[in-house]
Write a structure and sequence with these properties.
It contains seven helices and 14 strands. With about 270 residues, it is of the alpha/beta class. It has a single domain, classed as 4-Layer Sandwich (Metallo-beta-lactamase, Chain A), CATH 3.60.15. The chain binds zinc ion (3 copies). One zinc ion (ZN) binds next to loops.
Length: about 270
């Protein structure tokens, strides 16, 4: 299993428009955070999770060449706004609809934003089409298992996703955009080799976890490696990574995780990353 972080920023992105702060003007590329999404390669299956406003540019940057299915975690604009650019992948699939899984709320938002794209085939060659379905709590695929759990996120619920690779037995959990992680979601993520959590910023927010809240959840789940995502311009990458407890760090755009093999002895059980 491979995981590619296409974006790790909050809804405003970093740099933020009209801001000259140290993080927004930083020359460290890890402080440049496009809106949050990941690409998961499970065996030979390419799963795209969310499509940020920068989705096309993220695909070009990370050389994403194929998508078999799409999962929308929830219907907020920073996760859904790039979906029209999935048209290229419908074309590559042979001019058929892309399977799209989400919550009822996520599917309703897709229908409202992309009414021309709902159906089994694109309206014309090069157009986008979505075959919508509610993601079941457990999806068994030849390549692995995708499990999901609902996470509170203000007025909506976000799908927390757990991927298990059948070949290696490796487990990866992705919990973005959540105010808390309920007990059922903690239980589902237990045993994950790598955990990703919403760690918006140091200050409290009505619909996202603070960094301290995310660290507390990370300790409860106790994955060997946890990454925080959906980050604002309030946190500088290197400074915060040095300050976070061992085994917890910030994700950054372009971060790639290879979970296909056990880490070599002597690396403290940390998942390999670039
Ligand atoms: Zn978001
Ligand atoms: Zn700034
Ligand atoms: Zn959101």
């Amino acid at each position: 299993m491979e995981v590619i972080f296409l974006g790790t920023g909050t809804s405003q992105g970093v740099p933020m428009i009209a801001c000259d702060c140290a993080v927004c003007t930083s020359t460290d590329p890890r402080n440049r955070r496009t809106r949050a999404s990941i690409h998961v390669v499970l065996g030979d299956l390419h799963i795209q999770v969310d499509a940020a406003p920068e989705f096309r540019l993220q695909c070009l940057r990370e050389r994403i060449g194929w998508i078999d299915r799409f999962i929308l975690t929830h219907g907020h604009a920073d996760h859904v706004a790039g979906m029209d650019d999935l048209r290229r992948f419908c074309d590559l699939l042979g001019g058929v609809a892309l399977p799209v899984d989400s919550t009822e709320e996520g599917l309703a938002r897709i229908r409202a934003m992309y009414p021309y794209a709902i159906g089994e085939r694109p309206a014309a060659k090069g157009y986008v089409a979505f075959r919508l379905q509610t993601l079941p709590s457990r999806l068994e695929l030849p390549q692995g298992i995708i499990e999901s759990v609902r996470l509170p996120h203000g007025a909506v619920e976000t799908l927390g996703l757990v991927f298990t690779d059948r070949a290696s037995g490796k487990k990866f959990a992705y919990y973005t955009d959540c105010k808390s992680v309920p007990a059922a979601a903690v239980a589902l993520a237990r045993g994950a080799d790598v955990m990703v959590l919403d760690g918006l910023r140091p200050e409290p927010h009505p619909t996202h976890m603070t960094i301290d809240e995310a660290v507390a959840v990370a300790r409860e789940i106790a994955a060997p490696q946890t990454y925080l995502t959906h980050l604002t311009h309030l946190t500088e990458h290197a400074e915060w990574c040095s300050r976070l407890p061992a085994g917890i760090s910030f994700a950054h755009d372009g971060l790639r995780l290879n979970l296909s093999s056990r880490p070599p002895a002597g690396e403290g059980g940390r998942a390999a990353s670039t």
